[in-house]
Amino acid sequence: MVNELPTVALKALNGGLFVVGFALIGEAVAPKRFGGLFGAAPSIALANLLVIVVAKGHADAQREATGMIIGGIALFCACALGVALISKYRARRGSVLLCLTWLLCAEAGYLLFLR
């Protein structure tokens, strides 16, 4: 764990810099509602992949990127079902079912592509 402390610190610093950079892009785009797309997940993902390539190599970064893609696809599937689930079961129960849907889709993707 001690060996990974510099890598984690570099990921945090790099992630922060990427968030600021993408936030500046978000401020420049029109309409402003698209600004949030640039603020969080894409910038952190790119920053972490950059650190992984430098620290551990391309093979680990490819595996991490594949995991990010699987998670994104699982989130898309869960959100596609989420509207119907929340409409039918109300907020609390629908949200729990939505989370379970995401978890099942992500686990299936992991078992199919990363195991």
Q: Could you give a short description of this structure?
A:
The protein is mainly alpha-helical and 115 residues long. It has 3 helices and no strands.
What does this structure look like?
The protein has 3 helices and no strands. The protein is an all-alpha fold.
Largest sheet: none
Strand content: under 5%
> What is the total number of structural domains?
2
Low-confidence stretches: none
Distance between the termini: 24 Å
Global shape: globular
What key attributes describe this structure?
3 helices; mainly alpha; globular; about 120 residues; 2 domains
What are the SSEs and their pairings?
Layout: H1 5-28, H2 41-56, H3 58-114
Helix pairs in contact: 1-2, 2-3
